[in-house]
Amino acid sequence: MPKVVSRSAVSSSTDAQPTASSAAALRVYYCICGEFILVIDKSIASLPRRRTDGAIIVRAQDSDAGKARVFKLNAVAGDPVLLERPGGHERQYRFNCPRCTLPIGYQSTPPPAKSGPYMYIFAGALSQVQGEVPPDAFDGENGETIVELT
Ligand SMILES: [Zn+2]
Fold first, then answer.
1. How remote is the CA of residue 104 from the centroid of ligand 1, in Å?
2. Which of 15, 72, 94, 124 would bridge 78 by S-S if both were Cys, CB 3.0 to 4.6 A apart?
3. Start and end of every STEEP1 domain (predicted)?
4. What pLDDT, in 10s, does the model give residues 52-102?
């Protein structure tokens, strides 16, 4: 009976550099309650921010302007809220922490996540270290009027 040699064993080469696996480059973020919230392919600290509220902009869909980030959001969809902005109103579909229900971020389109071109993450909502409050947790409390939609 011939000996069976596994293909994977044969194809391994000694001089091949270990390829930077995508998993190694992923960043993991936690809610301040310690719940795992977000895994993403780039540090959110390096992503652009909205001028209006300082929220971190995560591109959720490919477009002419760029490719979508690879990310997964572990959050539950909350009630939409209507914000007063200079020059009009803005509707936000919120996503909340599944454990402590703290708002994590929002998008401009109804759930599920990534149904719109961008996902916005609240500045200071997430920490890279489990159980640690991020240094900017209290930034951005600029007295916005929030109208809860019924
Ligand atoms: Zn939480």
1. 8
2. 94
3. 21-135
4. 999 999 999 999 989 999 999 999 999 899 999 988 999 999 999 999 999
